[in-house]
Design a protein that fits this description.
Length: 264
């Protein structure tokens, strides 16, 4: 009797065990297996994919990259462009050009809108001139003009020829005074905005900029063969910094020697 009870108990344990195996095995295959594959595999891959996308793009957009929103006129105005009325003279026009290019960069204004947005800041006689110009060549042609074309046109209208000639002469003779590369670069950039006939292309601007550098860095800048003006400016600044650091080091060494060997 005792043996029968034990045998029945063993069989019951085995049945439960098999049921448990079914649950853990089949259900495990269906749940933990496939579910595990779905969770651990795909989710793991998804996490890796997300990490890769985050590494590459900063955010996960579900496989789609967002389209950048174009600059609107309100975006442009938020950057506070200057107005131009036509009576500010050469300096005022130069400042207007400089500010406008800064606003274009900050607002990410595309080239196709630059003339349209910029001319909305014209006032008084300048606005009258622009409206007349639009009527002459047509609205579509006027707004199809490139920013460089508008700068050249406004320079011809608002800068007397004799003033431009003076600035062209200054640009031709402009050189670095002492070691003040910053002042040279600033004045050079102001002059090339208006002296478009003298330096019409980027290559011309690079050549003229290098021509005004001191001999001890000029050769190195030429050897670097910069294709853009900004590249030439960056290289010149790096070389000038090294040059000034060398001066400072030699000056400190001479001072140390003098202090360690004082005259009796």
């Amino acid at each position: 009797m005792e043996m029968e009870v034990i045998t029945e108990m063993e069989m019951e344990v085995k049945r439960k065990g098999n049921g448990g195996n079914k649950g853990n095995g089949n259900a495990g295959k269906g749940g933990n297996g496939n579910g595990g594959n779905r969770g651990n595999g795909n989710e793991g891959n998804g996490e890796n994919g997300n990490r890769n996308r985050n590494r590459n793009h900063g955010m996960n957009y579900g496989g789609f990259m967002p389209v950048a929103r174009e600059c609107t006129f309100q975006d442009f105005l938020k950057c506070k462009p200057h107005n131009f009325s036509g009576t500010e003279g050469v300096v005022g026009l130069t400042r207007w050009f400089e500010k406008m290019e800064t606003v274009f960069n900050i607002s990410n204004c595309p080239p196709k809108y630059q003339v349209k947005y910029a001319t909305c800041t014209l006032q008084d006689s300048a606005l009258t001139w622009w409206n007349s110009h639009k009527r002459t060549i047509g609205v579509d042609a006027a707004y199809a003009m490139k920013w460089a074309g508008l700068m050249k046109l406004m320079t011809e209208v608002y800068c007397p020829r004799n003033e431009i000639q003076k600035m062209e002469t200054e640009l031709w003779n402009l050189t670095v005074k002492g070691n003040d590369l910053t002042a040279y670069t600033q004045r050079f950039q102001e002059l090339i905005l208006l002296c478009t006939r003298m330096v019409p292309d980027e290559e011309d601007r690079v050549e003229r900029f290098i021509g005004g550098l001191p001999d001890n860095i000029q050769g190195n800048v030429i050897a670097a063969n910069p294709a853009r003006l900004q590249d030439a400016i960056r290289i010149a600044n790096q070389l000038m910094d090294k040059k000034l650091q060398g001066y400072a080091a030699r000056s400190a060494e001479n001072k140390r020697r003098m202090e360690s060997n004082p005259k009796g």
